[in-house]
Amino acid sequence: xxxxxxxxxxxxEELAIQAFAQTHDLDITxxxxxxxxxxxxxxxxxxxxxVQQTAKIGGDLAFYQHLAQQGLKQxxxxxxxxxxxxxxxxxxxxxxxxxVPAYSPRSVAEMALMQIFRLLRRTWAxxxxxxxxxxxxxxxxxxxxxxxxxxxxxxxxxxxTLAQLLHALGARVLAYDTQPQDKHRAYLTYVDKATxxxxxxxxSLHVDLNPSSVGLLRAADFKQMQSHAGLVNASRGQVxxxxxxxxxxxxxxxxxxxxxxxxxxxxxxxxxLRTQGVADTHIQTLLDLPNVxxxxxxxxxxxxxxxxxVETALTDVLRIINDLPAENEI
Length: 330
Hints:
The chain contains eleven helices and twelve strands.
């Protein structure tokens, strides 16, 4: 029987995993822990490996060669992002790498849309006032979505889906993407990055993490944005320079931000830190700022997305194990 190890498994994934295992006659071992070289099991007992984590696996070429020598043919992440894997090293060792690029574009797009509404309605400010028993609403007039311009940086599967939702609500949608797609032109207007920054009331980020997208928004970019503008990030924390963002929020260069992902999140998100608190100074500063909405990387977290992530990842692993091409090989 084919044996597969899945790491960082959550309880909410188990039903989909068990159903797939039963249908395909698989023996799937579930681990709650992320994969790192210091907790690596004996992979000679497994035919396939699926991970899910934001922290890098770590390890050098010898680490990936060891996986291949033990009989693995691949490493799969059941997420869209794959920066936790040293892809070049894995491929140099003869391992195929796959991800799940389209588990449910609606899941992230709908989260981004909700955050756009929250920024436009300034709920971040009302939340802080109400928490202090201050129920006044003077100075917090909202903007209706059909009267604003929303900028999307990265109009791929998720960004394109968000554009459709915004277009249906009557918003003007601008987008910057290095590879414009004609199919999205009915819902958005492609412009350059500077135009998105200067003309948008809210900007939503939906780019892959790669060398060209790291630090995509820095101090100079925030200076181009309108002072009443909000920023939504549901992609990866590294696409924003956190220090520059904090400065822009503190000085009023931009009004607000809704962040579902931040640099350093792996030590904080999905952790219970009620006793010890947050050690990361940047994340704690963001938590303390009254004009920031912070959520723990949950934009993907819907019933349909979880099922799709599990099934797509396992399907690709099975194809590689059986020497067939995988749909989502990187």
